[in-house]
Design brief:
Family: Belongs to the glycosyltransferase 22 family.
Membrane topology: Multi-pass membrane protein
Radius of gyration: 28 Å
Strand content: 5-15%
Subcellular location: Endoplasmic reticulum membrane
GO cellular component, one term: endoplasmic reticulum membrane
Helix content: 55-70%
Largest sheet: 6 strands, mixed
Number of strands: 8
Shape: globular
Strand order of the largest sheet: 4-2-1-6-8-7
Number of domains: 2
InterPro entries: GPI_mannosylTrfase (IPR005599)
């Protein structure tokens, strides 16, 4: 019953999302998967063969969605023909199915988080005590007054163990609701990580209990950790630290003969790790070779890229303490006090694997803090561990109340504990805490930055012609493209690739758009035919009829074509214009026979290359 409720909740969660969090949820997963299945589309600069920063495994997972949609189109076409209702349904598939598919990983994350919590508690803690009778309780009126305010919340929580508390925390977390059903590599990495830790804990417990060494559990844990690295190569930093600590502790135990670990256990761990590496490394190398058409290791490229010159500064920089101050405050909100309490409580957990996980997470976050560019979503793979710690804080609160009720009424300290923790579980406090989680969950998934998907949904419901074209004048990539649109039309925007191997003063086209003094003049340069000294010009559009970026990059001048070649093309059928440019372009649009056909709200506040812009809209103009 609980599993059914969790599945229903995450399915609903996946279909409620109608906003954009970060462009990577489209351009590093769905757009790549769509191009693989349909043989056309646009790839961002990271996927250039000369750069090759991304592994292809993660997008390959989502090719399942587009293969399934193709099958549904064939079945629907055979049954319904090509009527308008069938067309409308097909267009909605591209919005619904990828996130519905992602909800599978969200459910697995929720369940895995609760199962890890159960493994931590079942061995080292007892069940929460049942409600006390008058004969069993020595609490005085002061303590009774504090706890009496708990009502049914106290009586309900008394029945739960840490695993169910953790499951509720995972489901009620606003940040989980906002991110888990989005198609990021971090969300799948987090899902795999929590299950890898689960099997590692099970393996460790089988040895601690004096049972025969369970190779199957260990192999499953190591295999899952390697899959995490395949999905997102930067996951390697966490798992390298994890296994170095694990093997060091096991070797130390074996040398001192002070535990049930032996040298054979260390050998088995090394042997399993070696076998799994031999299985997964060829898969990683071959899959990337298949995509990039050359032997390359994106993991090494990523390390090299980030060690030279800290290029992440191009996307903004944050304080070194960002992941220890702002990030937990924003992602946890009302759960933060309980998390801090749980940090203290987690020191009493005896699980060696969980302690190694905590240390590995801390060291990984410290490594992430050395890079200038930081985002909340980079902590998603480790967020389940944070929620388990938060649940420990909740468990501590409940246990403390029950312990205090058993204590002598003459002792003032238990009474103060009862009053303090009773306040934490007071109805109003609980409702306020839930309110603080629910409001941002709904707001950020349905309101803020909803314009990009709204615009593409509008176009997906139109029956566009092959020679139609759409061009965006807005911040770069804050909207999906063919993976949601699925129409054979030209699609364009001003490129925002970073100046890799270029002089630092060079601006990409999107920066030029936002900083140009006269936007009309810039559009004249791009869309009005003119004689050019540069014989090689590139179109501002992606065309389904031409393979994306064919003959446009090489090893000697990587990404030069995005900076040094002029772009020129015909005026688009549709202009999608951000409200920042809309007013100043009215005369130019009228002069070129464009009329407004729709407007969509985007955001109350939008971060742009020139700072924050307030009350953003997308205006859609059609050429008459």
């Amino acid at each position: 019953m609980i599993l059914i409720c969790v599945i229903a909740f995450r399915v609903l969660n996946s279909q409620i999302i109608s906003t954009t969090y970060n462009p990577d949820e489209y351009w590093q997963s769905l757009e790549v998967a769509y191009k693989i299945v349909n043989n056309y589309g646009y790839l961002t600069w990271e996927w250039e063969p000369c750069i090759s920063l991304r592994g292809i495994i993660h997008p390959l997972i989502f090719t399942v969605c587009y293969i399934a949609i193709k099958f549904l189109k064939l079945v629907g076409g055979a049954l319904c023909g090509k009527d308008s209702h069938h067309f409308y349904c097909i267009s909605n598939y591209y919005f619904c199915i990828p996130r519905l598919f992602q909800s599978i990983f969200a459910v697995l994350t929720d369940i895995g988080t609760s199962k890890v919590a159960y493994q931590l508690l079942s061995k080292y803690h007892t069940r929460l005590n049942k409600p006390h009778t008058e004969d069993e309780s020595n609490a005085d009126s002061f303590g009774e007054l504090a706890v009496s305010r708990l009502g049914m919340y106290q009586r309900s929580l008394d029945k739960y163990e840490l695993d169910l508390i953790t499951l509720l925390v995972s489901l009620l977390s606003w940040y989980n609701f906002f991110t888990l059903c989005r198609t990021y590599s971090q969300t799948i990495e987090g899902c795999i990580n929590i299950w890898a830790i689960y099997y590692m804990i099970k393996s460790d417990q089988s040895i601690s209990d004096g049972n025969y060494f369970n190779k199957k559990l260990l192999f499953t844990g190591v295999l899952l950790s390697s899959l995490s690295v395949l999905v997102r190569h930067s996951s390697a930093q966490f798992w390298i630290v994890f296994y170095l600590i694990l093997i060091s502790l096991q070797a130390s135990d074996a040398l001192h003969r002070s535990s049930k670990y032996s040298s054979s256990t260390v050998k088995e761990v090394l042997k399993v790790c070696a076998v799994v590496c031999c299985l997964t490394l060829p898969v990683m190398i071959y899959s990337d070779y298949w995509f990039y058409k050359k032997i390359t290791i994106p993991m090494l490229n990523f390390i090299k890229f980030n060690l030279i010159g800290d290029p992440g500064q191009f996307y903004g920089s944050n304080s070194r303490l960002y992941y220890f101050t702002e990030a937990p405050l924003v992602t946890l909100l009302s759960f933060l006090p309980l998390f801090l309490l749980g940090v203290r409580e987690s020191l009493e957990i005896e699980s060696k694997i969980f302690k190694i996980t905590q240390v590995s997470t801390l060291l990984t976050v410290l490594l992430l803090s050395t890079v200038s560019h930081k985002e909340y979503r980079f902590t998603i793979p480790y967020f389940p561990f944070v929620l388990i710690t938060t649940s420990l804080g909740i468990y501590k609160v409940i246990s403390e109340i029950q312990h205090s009720l058993k204590s002598s009424h003459k002792n003032l300290t238990p009474r103060l504990h009862t009053y303090f923790f009773g306040l934490l579980l007071n109805k109003k406090c609980i409702l306020a805490s839930l309110f603080v989680q629910i409001i941002p969950a709904i707001f950020f998934t349905t309101v803020l930055r909803r314009g990009g998907e709204s615009v593409i949904r509008f176009f997906s419901h139109l029956s566009l012609k092959e020679d139609d074209s759409i061009f965006f004048l807005s911040q770069c990539h804050m909207y999906p493209a063919y993976s949601y649109l699925n129409q054979d039309v030209k699609f364009g925007f001003l490129d925002c690739s970073p100046p890799i191997n270029q002089a630092s003063q060079l601006q990409n086209l999107n920066e030029i758009l936002w900083t140009h003094q006269n936007t009309s003049e810039l559009l004249e340069e791009v869309f009005v035919p003119r004689p050019s000294q540069n014989s090689v010009q590139i179109s501002p559009y992606i065309s389904p009829k031409i393979p994306a970026k064919e003959n446009t990059s090489n090893f000697e001048s990587c990404l030069n074509y995005r900076f040094e070649r002029e772009i020129s093309g015909d005026l688009p059928t549709f202009f999608v214009i951000h409200s920042h440019f809309n007013e100043n372009l009215q005369a130019w649009l009228r002069g070129h026979n464009y009329k407004l056909i729709n407007r969509f709200f985007d955001s109350f506040i939008t971060e742009t290359p020139i700072g924050y812009v307030y009350w953003s809209y997308f205006y859609i103009y059609e050429k008459t």
